[in-house]
Amino acid sequence: MCVIYVVEEHDQVLDLWRNQQAQSLHVLHLDAHCDMRGLLIDRQNQRAFRIWDKNKAVDQGNFLTHAIFEGRVSSLRWVYSELGGRQNDVGTVKYESDFTAAPYRLLLALRGVPGIPVHYEGILDTCWTDLMVGEYLDIDWDFFASIAYPEDTIQARVDAFLKKEFHVVPGQIYVCYSPDFSHPSRDQFRRFVTDLSHLFKAQIVEMQPRRNVPAMQPFYRKYIPLPLFRVTRQIYYKTCLSLRKWGIY
How confident is the model at residue 223, as a pLDDT? Predict the structure, then answer.
């Protein structure tokens, strides 16, 4: 029987995989964000490399990076909408063709780092049709309810997904609410989980939210006043997103 695991924060899925001692999973990842910060993927050779990430601990933005390097995920198809994807995010996966990937590629080549094999695809949602045999389904609610979308479009996105003809039933489904990135729409989220369970005749398992643990501040936060830090970060984000509109990553 298919099982739907419902989580509050997306990195709880990695906790689940660790508890299950999962290895070499094939995952279909429906999300406005890649959750692969700190990862460089050579798409031509289908190999993955770890690169610099200021937050080495597991979090929502890099849990798939850790999953890949722990051998828990060997195939990943990331499906995103036109308002999601790398072009609308800052802490995102890098590709071998990115301008900013050049220094990392040089350093990795000098060090002789071979990377690890991974099957990876990035797919616009209008080009995605169905699950593949053996894939597990991973859904972030912000795929439907991202704060980047008008709130009144959530249900139409959900309905379009539920009307798809799925020819494959996944062994496991992970559904994450992601309160930091989604419109306040918990009732719609709960209905979606129920409808999903009917669609795949699945059992629902609720994962308990983690206790809030204060995040360790980076060293530079000790010396930069909060107002100045926020302004600097906003300028950085806007600069990155502006460059991406010109195709510079």
Answer: 77
What angle separates helix 186-200 from helix 154-162, to the nearest 10 degrees?
Answer: 10
The first and second tokens of residue 130, run together, are: 């169905």
**What is the per-residue DSSP string for 134-148?**
TEEEEEETHHHHBTT
CA distances from 58 to 137, 141, 221 (A): 21, 20, 20
With tokens 């559904």, the residue in question is 175
- Distance, C-alpha 75 to centroid of its chain: 14
94 close to 34: Cβ distance less than 8 angstroms:
no
Return the structure tokens found at 60: 């929502």
Angstrom distance (rounded) from CA 119 to CA 76: 6
Q: Domain limits of the chain?
A: 3-216, 218-249
Give the span between the Cα atoms of 202 and 24, in whole angstroms. 23
- For residue range 10-59, list pLDDT tens digits in order: 999 999 999 999 999 999 999 999 999 999 999 999 999 999 887 789 99
As given in the structure block, the two tokens for residue 70 are 């722990």
